[in-house]
Amino acid sequence: MTEPLLKIRDLRIDATVYPPGEAAREIQIVKGVDLDLQRGKVLGLIGESGAGKSTIGLAAMAYGRGGVRITGGQVLVNGRDVLTLRDSGLRRLRGNEVTYVSQSAAASFNPSRRILEQVTEAAILHGKFTRQQAQARAIDLFGKLGLPDPERIGQRYPHQVSGGQLQRCMTALALCPEPDLVVFDEPTTALDVTTQIDVLKAIKDVIALTGVAALYITHDLAVVAQVADDIMVLRHGEMVEHGATDQIINAPRQDYTRALVSVREIRHDEQPPTPTPVLSVDGISARYSGMHDDVLSDINVALSPGQTLAIVGESGSGKSTLARVITGLLPPRSGRIGFDGHDLTPAQRQRPRQDLRQLQMIYQMADVAMNPRQTVETIIGRPLQFYFGLKGRQRRDRVVALLDQIEMGADFLDRYPAELSGGQKQRVCIARALAAEPKLIICDEVTSALDPLVADGILKLLLQLQKDRQVAYLFITHDLATVRAISDSIAVMHRGKVVRYGPKSQVLSPPFDDYTDLLLSSVPEMRPGWLEQVVAHRRIEAGGE
Amino acid sequence: MRRIPLAALLGLLITGLFFAAAILAPVIAPYGPSEIVGDVWEPASAEHLLGTDNIGRDLLTRLIYGGRTTIFVATLATAISFVTGTFLGLTAATVGGWVDQVMSRCVDVLMAIPPLIFALVILSVMPVTMPVLIIVIGLLEATRVYRLSRSVAVDIAVMDYVEAARLRGEGRMWIVFREILPNALSPLVAEMGLRFIFIVLFVSTLSFLGLGVQPPAADWGGIVKENKDGIVYGIGAALWPAVAIAALAISVNLIADWVLSRTSSLKGGRG
């Protein structure tokens, strides 16, 4: 075997954390990781947040972000230990031999300079190419990445191209100086599913065409299965499993990997709709003040008691606005909302307390949905006191009972939100909603900020609670896998309209309208070769028109 | 009990001494505040530790009584400025809309006038008594507190947990005092330390100009005024109140820093 391009031996990385108001302390982020990457190969690094995958990726450039210190081990790029390099050596390494593609291209481009200038800058500075050569190469890369009008797109400013295009421009930026290694740090995570697929395909093609080696960092196993030759699974800064993509997906050896692969295997049998819905939205149109276009136009959906209606769509489709209309934060321009046999007052402030109690909400970001200065007992106990007048001992007992239901214990009573993990925070939010004994809970992207395994646990909990307490969910999400797992009926939204609506089995079976088809086929599947199939399928369809 | 950092301990000690001296002034002061006990500007001696002032009163006694006045006025004025400023600022941020606009623009108008000149104008038409002085200074400083608390609260008012409380149907008072105020406290506490010192300086300035505390009572600014002519002859009597002001300013801010780091902890200040 030839000498690998990137060779990491016993890498150890520490960081000092400064919790506000407390003494600083040391934590280990990476605890002795070994890794080899051959020329022209792609290695996927996968793990939940905090697994140390981005930190390892940046260590390949001898960079420690925000107070992170590389304390031990070797990182050899082309046989040279980059951890011993001084400033001038590091400058030759970064942006030249090793380049980086970050999660948010929008935050990484300088908004006041043209794209082409920024894409060619590193190659010119490092003296690899003359300006003309670099620009020709950039235009060539724009073409290979499937960007429209490659000759001229570089003359635009970053805000003049879409998010998916900008992410591809950033890939061009990373590839322009002909690096040996590119570190991709979650390059498609912030994109909509329908956009993700194009960017993913573009990245995969350009890697094959240029023969560059890559570290591909992501938390989504289905995504990494499409681009990587090998996969390394990380957890808590240690390697769990390392193997060929096929082996990891089809024959995982470790329990943790098996759990990752089998995630989203929740099944929920669809219930038929009942004649009297708990929530009915009739002809709702809404717009924000000062805007001239409707954000929602003529929405009609209904939700039966104890069932789940999933609202699906990409960002900007109006699904969260619909939640704001139902909760009364944004009174609609026209239409009515029926709830539990009567019409809801449009504005939240005028609604009777009974209606407020029976309609609860759970948010995407559990961190900011709880007051950081209140203990878990206060957070869950307040609705009990507010709606039912429970006090003291009674209230405490009820809070403990609720904590039991969300599979947490009485020892969490005195904790503050900052002392909880991401999944526990979301559970407390669920308990707060349940405390009001609602008939309907609006769940706004409640699992999208969570790691797959944690999200799985939350979904199972929600289903269990639905079974026990007959509460209905209006489940807003962009994630079709979640929709499949838990819904009874589905409404697909696109540009403020419901384009498809009905029971789950009906919505998810052909014949599809164009948008639903696009959305469904864009959900990454955990099998190598899926990406090519989808893209080929789309080409045929496009050619047939 | 958690360990108190050395700086905060020092701050607590010095501030404690100042406040104790203020409260116990009649007990610890060696002479009466208006008692003429010696010659003009006597140097320091065993009888008069800091010497005597421009008409022969014991300077240490004057300083202790002056501190009593200064601290009393500044503490009450700070309290008034914080209660009104914070309450109005948080309310404006929570209610929003035209209420916020009207209140904020009124505050802008008040702030456009230099506070010292504003205070001089008001105090020259009003009888200069202690309550008037305290209320005028308190309300003038409240505009600064209003601005700070409003801008902090505006950011907090859009958080999901505030929206959750609104959706629950909570009243405005709960939202202001239970959801927003605890999260706005850190910057406000830091501000309070600074504001207290600004008010001490403000009172002293007014007294120095003759529109603050009226003789024969004196605060530290008044003592500077009485003894300022001595500086020309190399007599340092006017410098002692300045030292007192500086020492109080630093020690109060040491405490404010410590309280700030305690209250910004999101884990209830534990481990």
Which of globular, elongated, flat, extended, rod-shaped describes the shape of chain B?
elongated
Strand content of chain B: under 5%
Q: What value does the Rg of chain B take, in angstroms?
A: 22 Å
CATH superfamily of the largest domain in chain A: P-loop containing nucleotide triphosphate hydrolases
For the sheet with most strands of chain A, the description reads:
6 strands, mixed
Please indicate the percent range of residues of chain A in DSSP E strands (runs of 2 or more): 15-25%
Q: Which class do the helix and strand fractions of chain A yield?
A: alpha/beta
Do you know the CATH topology of chain B? MetI-like fold
Return the average pLDDT of chain B rounded to an integer. 86
- Spatial order of the strands forming the largest sheet of chain A: 6-7-8-3-9-10
Shape of chain A: globular
In the CATH scheme, the class of chain B would be: Mainly Alpha
What share of the residues of chain B lie within helices? over 70%
Return the CATH architecture of the largest domain in chain A: 3-Layer(aba) Sandwich
What structural class results from the helix and strand content of chain B? mainly alpha
Oligomer: heterodimer
CATH architecture of chain B: Orthogonal Bundle
How many extended strands of chain A? 20
CATH superfamily caption of chain B: MetI-like
First-residue to last-residue Cα separation of chain B: 12 Å
Give structural attributes.
heterodimer, A: 545 residues, alpha/beta, 2 domains, six-stranded mixed sheet, 22 helices, B: 271 residues, mainly alpha, MetI-like fold, elongated
